[in-house]
Write a structure and sequence with these properties.
The chain is α/β, with parallel strands linked by helices. It has a single domain, classed as STAS domain (Transcription Regulator spoIIAA). 42% of the residues lie in helices and 22% in strands. It contains two helices and four strands; from the N terminus they run E-E-H-E-H-E. The chain has helices spanning 25-39, 56-75, and strands at 2-6, 11-15, 43-47, 80-82. Strand 1 (2-6) and strand 2 (11-15) form a beta hairpin. Helix 1 packs parallel to helix 2. The longest helix is centred in the C-terminal third of the chain and has 20 residues, at 56-75. It is globular and about 30 Å long.
Length: 83
């Protein structure tokens, strides 16, 4: 997973380049949580262009990051979540 943060726009982009299954989801979740808390972005984008497979664990990971972004949105009204 490649992470880019654009400070001017307060945009955090996660470009995922692997299959998302129960074997990889822990690492992706840990890295995403760390970067979201580190940068406190207004927008979070998950780029799934290179993902060829995602199981239910991956879907749960995305939903969990959405909930985390909602918590940030309550603190910062300008925070958005995009897919």
């Amino acid at each position: 997973m490649i992470t880019n943060y654009y400070e001017r726009d307060k945009l955090l982009v996660f470009k995922i380049n692997e299959e998302i299954d129960e074997c990889t989801v822990k690492d992706i979740r840990r890295k995403a949580d760390y970067e979201i808390e580190r940068f406190m972005p207004r927008e979070v984008v998950f780029d799934f262009d290179n993902v060829t497979f995602m199981d239910s664990a991956g879907i749960g990971m995305v939903i969990g990051r959405f909930k985390q972004a909602q918590l940030l949105r309550r603190k910062d009204k300008n925070c958005k979540f995009k897919q």
